[in-house]
């Protein structure tokens, strides 16, 4: 049985090529385009929305682990680049970067029940070092915001800055006028 069109290596390559081509096109066309200075869009979900989600069962441990990072003195630095969906896992290619290893250590120091691994080479690829928060955080957050009609958000400083940058760019793109109407 052959591969489906979506599994075909040429399709995967073409999709990646198209994505990067679009990315570089946008960057060439709009060099002032500011990309958010966060790991992923989930890092911009307001803390008050995260708190309002249900956190029963196994999710409570994940939320508690996230809260340890929130309470850290360097929380903005940690939460801006923490991988919400995957947490911190051991991958040899990432752990070759000393800055990433320092980031991992800072996260582990925030949690009283997580020890910093002494020898990373003994870990298997994909070993969880620090738990994730939630895989479907963005979808659940958007559902909660629309369902409850939430209009007030608790943002950290880095989130506020990133949302302000996004809003400024949207305004700049939305209020363009023709050159002849300016003069």
Shape: globular
Count of discrete alpha- or pi-helical segments spanning 4 or more residues: 8
| Helical residues, percent | 40-55%
What is the number of E strands? Answer: 2
Q: Ranges with pLDDT <50 over ≥5 residues?
A: 1-16
Strand order of the largest sheet: 1-2
Which structural category do the helix and sheet elements fall into? mainly alpha
Structure in words:
- The chain is an all-alpha fold and 183 residues long.
- It contains eight helices and two strands.
- The chain has helices at residues 9-29, 47-52, 58-71, 75-81, 98-110, 137-148, 157-174, 179-182; strands spanning 88-89, 128-130.
- The protein has a two-stranded antiparallel ribbon with strand order 1-2.
- The radius of gyration is 20 Å and the shape is globular.
- Mean pLDDT is 80; it is low at 1-16.
Quick overview of this protein structure:
The protein has 183 residues and is mainly alpha-helical. It is 52% helix and 3% strand. It has helices spanning 9-29, 47-52, 58-71, 75-81, 98-110, 137-148, 157-174, 179-182; strands spanning 88-89, 128-130.
